[in-house]
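Researcher: Go.
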Amino acid sequence: MPVILIHSERFAEHQTPPGHPERPERAEAMDAVASRWRARGLEIVAPRAATHEQLARVHDEDHVRRMAQLAGTAAALDPDTYTSPETHEIALLAAGACVDAVERVMGTTGHAAAALVRPPGHHAERNRAMGFCLFNNAAVGAAHALTLGAQKVAIVDYDVHHGNGTQHIFERDPRVLYVSLHQFPYYPGTGAADETGHGDGRGFTVNLPLDAGAVDEDYQIAFSEVVVPVVRQFAPDLLVVSAGFDAHERDPLGGMRVTTAAFGAMTRELKEVADECCRGRLAAVVEGGYDLAALAGSLDAAIDALNGAAAPWPRSGIASSRGRDAIEAARSALAGQWSFA
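Model: Structure:
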């Protein structure tokens, strides 16, 4: 069944200062992608705003209230994170798009949905906006799935930055598996392999910290030996993908060398796992990606993979042990919790 896209041209209304990488042009790049896929027959759905109840499942009441108080104003929340008069409403649409994606796939078999949104979300903590993010879109979607009958939800995050907010929101909850591949050490400074969760959630956080310069083959081996085996063993009822494209070789913020085709390959592997484990239920949400051409091309590749196109792993031909090092670190930290390939 074809993937459903949730998107709105309104995502360009969130304004950031001149020169900021999380700029309205990112939404325009997503507009162009959505238009191409509409012409090819995909359904494009406008998002609804997330409700207070949906946000409060993963964010403190004080945080939800503070963000609402910023409606209609321009503010600097930290050196990276800004609001404009429209930002609060647009951030609600971004979180709501992920809720909509989850609802659409939870009620069907074989469907996947992708939320093409900004601002991104995975850095937003329970009580804090940071790293361009106001609300944690993926976390809001995952928590909503639990109210719809999902017993277990897996979140796989391949953004170049570690999703500190997503990890911390769920790190004590064994119902949610969080798996992240990210450049390390790098912003925001979290995501070491020994961060595996706390209390009942111990072992359900899986970090694959990759050194800068990682190539397609590093990601391929991390997927084949850790990501895919762990998600299969967890056997979720829904797979959420935090689809950040800033590990691309052209991205100005990341230091990785991942190609456009590799984002298709990663997404295709996750779709195959969803087909095996959770009747194809997969909801993807755009996170980072700051080179406009690379963002559009990688997003196209991911959507194509979700639609069932073959997406073989490309070969860079560059020798690198970064993936192997990350795998060994994860295996050591999670010994006895999971069986690895």
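Model: The chain has a mean pLDDT of 97.
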